[in-house]
Structures are given as structure tokens and as C-alpha cells.
Specification:
single chain, mainly alpha, TerB-like, 8 helices
Length: 146
């Protein structure tokens, strides 16, 4: 399962991803952000499951299964740049702000702002074609709706 997605992501021009690959790519980024501070807290795991359920309209069991798949993918995934570029191609600009809010929501789930998480989020925001201001607004929305 991971091999096909990894091949698409590492292709010179990955193009549009199928919906399932987009879901796994976003879930993998959520896991990567949660792990960026070296601590993969239970609160972050719970938040990832909730975000995936809301983002993709799936039940809690499907969200947990997608997160577990993403944990495996994140462990073998190429750099964050490839995932993010593929997501940028697959997701409309107006929906990318919602993705950024989801990423911030996971980063803030453990109650601690970490430099490692901030760094990954700055990179992802830029690669998604969002400004620093867009990212800050997404963070404020995530803080307001935990």
C-alpha cells in the first residue's frame, strides 16, 4: 500500500492524487507534526483521530485505522516537502487553510508549543501556498476550537 503512494510522491511530477492517497498523505502530515517535538502524546493521537473523522466524514474506527496507516507511512516517508507538494496539487487553495487549521490543532493538542512543531508547520504552510498570516489565522481558529 505504501509503496505505490511513495512512488507517486517521489515521481518528478506527482500530479493529482486519488482521494485515498490524499487522505493518507494528510494523515501522515498530522502524525509528522505530532511527532516533531519527539513526544507522540495520547492527546495528539486522539486529536488526529477526531480531525480525520471530521475532515473526511469517516467514523471513529475508520479514522483510527487511517491514523495507524499514517503512523506506518510516516516512519518510512520521504521528506515533508514531497507530501506537502502532492497535497497542494490535490487540494484546492480554499481547503488548504482548513488543512492548516487541522495541523495546528494537532500541534496544540498536548498544550505545549514546541519549536520543532512550529518549524514543520512553517514549512508546510509555505509549501501549501499559504502565507504566514494565513497560518497564524489557522492557528487562532485551532486555539479557539480545540
Amino acid at each position: 500500500m505504501f509503496d505505490a503512494l511513495l512512488r507517486r510522491l517521489t515521481a518528478p511530477n506527482p500530479g493529482r492524487l486519488p482521494a485515498a492517497d490524499t487522505h493518507l498523505s494528510l494523515a501522515t502530515l498530522l502524525v509528522r507534526v505530532a511527532r516533531a517535538d519527539g513526544l507522540y502524546a495520547h492527546a495528539e493521537v486522539d486529536r488526529i483521530d477526531r480531525v480525520l473523522g471530521l475532515q473526511f466524514g469517516i467514523d471513529p474506527f475508520a479514522a483510527a485505522r487511517l491514523r495507524r496507516d499514517a503512523e506506518g507511512m510516516e516512519a518510512v516517508a520521504p521528506d515533508t516537502v514531497r507530501f506537502t507538494r502532492a497535497l497542494k496539487e490535490a487540494v484546492a487553495l480554499e481547503d488548504r487553510a482548513g488543512m492548516m487549521q487541522a495541523l495546528w490543532s494537532v500541534a496544540l493538542a498536548d498544550g505545549v508549543r514546541d519549536d520543532g512543531e512550529d518549524q514543520v508547520l512553517r514549512l508546510v504552510s509555505n509549501l501549501l501556498g499559504l502565507s504566514d498570516q494565513d497560518s497564524a489565522m489557522a492557528r487562532r481558529r485551532a486555539e479557539a476550537r480545540p
